[in-house]
Amino acid sequence: MVEITRLPEEARFSFRVAAGGVAAASKAFGVDLPTTIGGMAANGSRRALCLGPDEWQLDAAASERDAVVAAFAGIYADTPHSLVEVTDREFTYQISGEQAEELLTVGVPRDMALVTVGSGTRTLFDTVPAILVREADNRFTLSVWRSFAPHAEELLHIANKEFAAGL
Amino acid sequence: MSAFRIAGKGRVNHSKPVRFTFDGKTVQALDGDTVASALLANGIHLVGRSFKYHRPRGILTAGSEEPNALVGTTRGPGRFEPNTRATMQEVFDGLKTESQNRWPSLTMDIGSVNDRMHKLFSAGFYYKTFMWPRSFWDKVYEPFIRAAAGLGKSPTEEDPDHYASRFHHCDVLIVGGGAAGLAAALTAGRSGASVVLVDEQSELGGSLLSEPSIEIDGKDAWSWLDATVAELSGMANVRIMTRTTAIGYYHQNMVGLCQKLTDHMATPPADAPRERLWRVRAKQVVLAQGASEKPLVFDGNDRPGVMMAGAAQTYLNRFGVTVGRYAAVVTSHDSAWYAAFDLLTAGVKVNAIVDTRAQVDPTLVDSARALGIDVFLSSTVTGTSGRKRVTSMTVAPVTDGKVSGGSHVVACDTVLMCGGWTPNLHLFSHTKGSLIWDDENKVYLPHEKTEECQVAGAGRAVWGIADTLKDGADAGAAAVKSLGKSGAAVTFTVSKDRTGSGETHRELPTDGDPGSARAFIDFQNDVQAKDIRLAVREGMKSIEHVKRYTTNGMATDQGKLSNINGLMIASDALGRDVKQVGLTTFRPPYTPTTFGALAGYHKDGHFEITRKTTIDSWAEEKGAVFEPVALFRRARYFPQGSEDMHAAVNRECKATRTSLGMFDASTLGKIEVVGPDAVEFMNRMYTNPWTKLQPGRCRYGLLLGEDGYIRDDGVIGRLTEDRFHVTTTTGGAPRVLNMMEDYLQTEWPDLKVWLTSTTEQWAVVALNGPNARKLLEPLVEGLDISDEAFPHMSVADCTVGGLPARLFRVSFTGELGFEVNVPARYGLQLWEMLWEAGQQYDICPYGTETMHVLRAEKGYIIIGQDTDGTVTPDDAGISWAIGKAKPDFVGKRSLARPDLVASGRKQLIGLLTVDPKTVLEEGAQIVDDPKQPIPMKMLGHVTSSYWSEALGRSIAMAVVEDGRARDGKSVYIPMPNGVIEATVQASTVFYDPEGARLKL
């Protein structure tokens, strides 16, 4: 059986900046923003996941939310960018256990072997747009928009029973 | 012990008896049996009636190509399935099976009268018979055809099973676990590649399961098989799936697999899915599908007891079952000789081997004669006898393709036939790979590939175990090489191989009347040789037309047995080369597949995504009636007591207009547009001017397509110089964002602006009504919301009841209105707080229906209801939303197109029925003069129509040709029960045209 847990909200932002602004943004956020799509970097509770050529998902502890907003506001004039809070937009599930990867193949069409530890990717989970992160061999997080979450969560539980049945 | 079971023989478990029922009678079987092998072990050959003629039919094959032995199966309560192939269904204790297409019983079937009238039911019967009179079609012909169509009974109960699905990626997918597939798997597996090996049977082995006497690498076939399966099972990089059919081969090496998980179990584990659909993306595919044995076409080739020689060999060697006591063989291929020898060795008397060929390998002939079998070369079978089981066959000599002498009768209870072997091309054919006719072997072979695949073994007419193993290993090595890995083809030494050869025929020569011969090609659809000839006589030249005229190959087996025979006969009848006649196309699925497997998890509550807002649970508790809006479900109205929709909506409208209504507006699309070029981007996307809009203020935004037609609209707030909060329609949210991104990325990559969907970040509660501010004011902190400080069309951040909020003063009802946005986690909390606090104003929750009425009273359009993708801003009467001074915006050039500025376009107007109580039907057509002859000229149609409680009368909006010029004039709406007269009102605003109520 695989453990499926909804994680509490922290602070999450969608961050967009042109290539020339990565250095300043890294400094403001305190994490070197990875520039390979799928790449992830962290510093303390702050974590950056590169989702596109100019797009990152930034995570921080809830208590650091205002500090993050302020830090980016401070560089806006010289480094124009877009920082939009999306903490409440999505639910994030932690999926862990020996069969976690196999459980995810119920809905993820990507080749899971290419989702390496410490990377993340935009994908689908059974028609639902999702962001999948592999934190360890057998531990993933799956973020889906709030109103899609019940559908995704229900499927995870339905499919999890197949492992109990052994088939 | 069943009468036809040989003790200790085969791969069935002789120490594990199983009991199931067939037509209510208990049948003794062994674990490992199929329904077919168990029935044969008990001497039961008659298992069903044929589709069209209701002829008694038996078991023809031992595989998934079976056209005859289709039975109804019941695997427990609610688990009935028609048309299960008895040759594939494994037995278990408690399984119930029943024969089909017979009434009242299998042995006594009324429908068999069709067989005596068979000359009536020739090819094209339906086309010719049900032509006229035309009036008979609906009441007589179609019901008749529908009643006659379809085999088996549909299940009457809802399927209690559930079905699973998975995605999978691998280096090499090998389809078929016979000799070729196993050799490919060993080669690929040892190279370290990730391998998936699938086979539709319950165990790997393919033809090796039926040929235990062959020796591989010094071991007998089954010992070698055990060792090979053990080696493969021990490889972490190899996944073996049995009972798994590759049903379709799609683009870019995507192969669909249907894995049967529980159909063979008496007591499946709780929560186990019945089947699982796998979508496998393989870098390389090895098709090792093998070949199917082809029937010979002669009179009476469909009687129970007539079966494929290879099937008899399988029943003997794999299941330990003899298919009869005394057999006769008719063949054009060596393989049936070996089958005869195996049967004879097992104690079955073989009375005769009839071979159509003049020259047969002398060692075979000598062996047969030495075993006491009568051999007839250059001969034909002209008929069989026996009603529910064959009792004899008639043999005659042939010279130059014609019967050339007297016939004689061979007594037998089983006829084993073999017309050669047809490579299974189905999956290759799915890829649209081209086929090539091999004139020497008389088979179609895979030719030019369109996908990354290898074809190995009998599937490309490589015969004999030695050559097949080598071919499979080579295919495995080729796949490995394509992956950039190294791995030599595994080699094998094979002895006692029984490679054969043979000839391919059209129907066998006969001395009887060919028009009376019942020589079947397609057993499942009851198509005979003479039907093909008739089709050709009646003008069908292409095999595609012959197929459709005769239904040859159109049954669920897709002509696995019949295609080549039909083709040979058509080619002969047309006097044209086989190549010119062509081959019909195979399509997925390879074998019949349940809808359950295809639907997977998408059933019941999980059938389709239902998006819900954070306030949905409250609405449900309050008994709201919901309606789907895009993927969302939204509360449509909140009935109280016995109220119907109209009563509830009237009450909700009145409460909102007189005091206060609350509405869940969370589903509206939201996009945050941020960056130094945000205002420039907005100017280019929307028709409206944005430059002068001050931060903290809102504006109605209108979005056109490049064609100038209205695509979407919504209120847009400017939060700061560089940040806009855009709202879209509920259904339009994804496509508006996509359209914006499309322009941004392809047309204006230079703009420094970025878009983020915030639809689900915010929960939104709309408060409307004269008491809206009174409710909100005491709850708001950090903002003065008086009319002077926070006028209509304002936006600001504040807190509402302590919750962080983005507050809009906007209105879609014409009343004083606010929309409170809070982070979604607080949505329900906000709603309940406002609900509690609003009790003093008799706050009324309202749904989408009331929202529609209130906005229609104000003449506000709804995209997709009052517009249909062909409506311009001028058509909709909202040209005021166009920034005339702007140099450009999406759609601007199109608005000057001649047809968009021409007169006579349909314009959105208001309609008031002459009888104020009459509510028009939305979609109803509008005409000028109801007395004009039919067909009348339609001027347009009603787009929105409601009862207006505030006005005490009905109101409607409509798009009407030159609508505004018709102000005050009458138009007519013809309906089934009379014509309705209505008066055009150029303005769509019905209520509070001055907008005074907004300014409270």
TrEMBL record, chain A:
Gene3D superfamilies (alphabetical): Heterotetrameric sarcosine oxidase, Probable tRNA modification gtpase trme, domain 1
The source's superkingdom equals Bacteria
Q: What is this protein called?
A: Sarcosine oxidase subunit gamma
Where, if anywhere, are coiled coils annotated? none
Q: Name one Pfam family in it.
A: SoxG
- InterPro entries in the cross-refs: SoxG, TrmE/GcvT-like
Automatic annotation (TrEMBL), chain B:
Gene3D superfamilies for the chain: 2Fe-2S iron-sulphur cluster binding domain, sarcosine oxidase, alpha subunit, N-terminal domain, BFD-like [2Fe-2S]-binding domain, FAD/NAD(P)-binding domain, Probable tRNA modification gtpase trme, domain 1
Q: Where is the Aminomethyltransferase C-terminal domain?
A: 906-992
Where does the GCVT N-terminal domain start and stop, copy by copy? 617-886
Molecular function (GO) terms for this protein are: sarcosine oxidase activity
Keywords of the record, alphabetical order, are: Oxidoreductase
InterPro entries cross-referenced by the UniProt entry = 2Fe-2S-bd_N, BFD-like_2Fe2S-bd_dom_sf, FAD/NAD-bd_sf, GcvT/YgfZ/DmdA, GcvT/YgfZ_C, GcvT_C, GCVT_N, Sarcosine_oxidase_asu
Q: Where is the SoxA A3 domain?
A: 517-600
Give the top-rank taxon of the lineage listed in the UniProt record for this protein: Bacteria
- A Pfam family matched in the record: Fer2_4
Biological processes annotated in GO: tetrahydrofolate metabolic process
Per the record, the similarity remark reads:
Belongs to the GcvT family.
Name of the protein described by the UniProt record: Sarcosine oxidase subunit alpha
What is the species of this protein? Pacificispira spongiicola
